[in-house]
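re: that chain from earlier
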Amino acid sequence: GTQATNAYNGADWSRLDRVIDDFLSYDGGNQWDMHRSFAKPNAMIGFWTGYGSHGLAVQNAIWTAAIHNVLHPNIFWMYSFLNPDFTHSASARDMGKAFGSLTSEGVGKLLMESVRQQDGIAVYYSMPSIHAASILGYHQRSSDDDDEVTDKARLSFSANRDGWVKTIKDLGLQFDFVSSEDVAAKGIASDKYKVVILPLAFALSDEEIQQLEQFVTRGGGVIADAAPGWLDQHCPWQKNDRVNKLFGIATVDSDKRQLKLAAGAVRTSAQAGEWGIPQDLTDIRIAEPDVKASHGTALLKIENGNAAIVNHTGKGWTIYLNTAWDQYPKQRASNFGGAAYRHLINAILNKAGITTGIQVTSPDGRQLPQAQIARYKFGNAEILAIVKENVAIAGVVGQDGVTTYNDASLGQVAKQELTIKLPRKFYVVHVRAGKQLAFTDVVHSSILIGDALVLALTPEVNQLKFEGPVSAHAGDHVSFSLQSTIADKTLVRCHVYAPDGSRLPIYSNNVLVENRSGKFILPFALNDPPGKYVVRATDVVTGAVIEKSIELK
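^ sequence. v structure.
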């Protein structure tokens, strides 16, 4: 039950993740993205689910965790999934559908064995800045979660960070957190990241500033929202103006600066067109009206204040936005508002050459709202996972490609039609269904709102060979060999069916096939009934299927 980071609880995940092997984590404070970014190799990241919730709500929680590499669920508590007569509750049955897909369909093993991709975006994580935010009154001791902002005049550090996380994901992009400690010691890898985002990075050390300068000089981009380096790493006022020079801005002395967040009319400059920044930006507040562009260029004016100040240094650039992102989570929660934030950052990231090669839209070509898109590499295949947020039916009726109907077990649900444009043609497989779709660069599919769609994209087809004995006796542990025509690794789910045709989950397993070969063990029990058993092997990634029968005597 880990907690969101604040200045008082010692929950600095950038350091704790280096030594802890097994987490049972809540998700508040963007913890899942932090664990995903900072966890040591092979760490088990678990989470809590259940609580009596049912339907697509509980399934959505499980799938959302899974695409964050949080793949070790724990259920709270027994009474929420076990009825008084010891039958499974509705909550248990609905959880079982997601768990069944992750286990018996091989999706969980596939995600564990895959490498999650990112799009060259680093988001700064700084414990000194959290201390600074607390000192300055922008990070409340009692605030465990991210998105509860009720007072527009009061800046929230945690909601601001969550606003950046949600904006990046809403653009269909992926990122990593990078810690201030690592940046100071090792710098920022220019071959991995194109852009670094500083969400209210109030406290910066000389070493961090130097590393940011070098990253920009080499060709990287640095985006800050408000007041980066207002204090140093120990939280006294910053004494030098290196940060101002980096961003091409002029401010008053650190001890005299104030954030006076205020909304106003947004106007674009002539240079904004060069960055593709649209003119119809609204609901964006200015943080410090007194900040001026020195050797930088203001792309926006909010009232009379300079905003989105761009400065070129060496081969790279910086942008000082002079605003905050803490209102975005609340705005997007209401009919997917906050478009101005998305449009502004989308333009800047496009200018930096950051785009996703996979476009997921509604049938009319509009961006798919309130969905998370995660991409992975598995051998020579690419894995695409789409999880649509669990939005109330009233919030989705009228959206393009959405139909609502009554499901026998889930009640009233909504289905979203999807158009998925790929960068080139692939053999496309619907992983959960084990269905080969087509060799194509455009996929038309659908997803239940709150559920997950998992597709495998491969450059080649596979053929499986499955060999083993034709008969066995009770108690035998029978070995079957799997052969693959794909040189790289693949994953095969082996389902075992009893003589009456029922599947035996206890004998089913997911086999990682490497160097073209793998092994499946069928451990017959002493009391298994005699008859013909069938083992069906399905390549999770390519959809290739082969069966083998064995007679138990």
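The mean pLDDT is 93.
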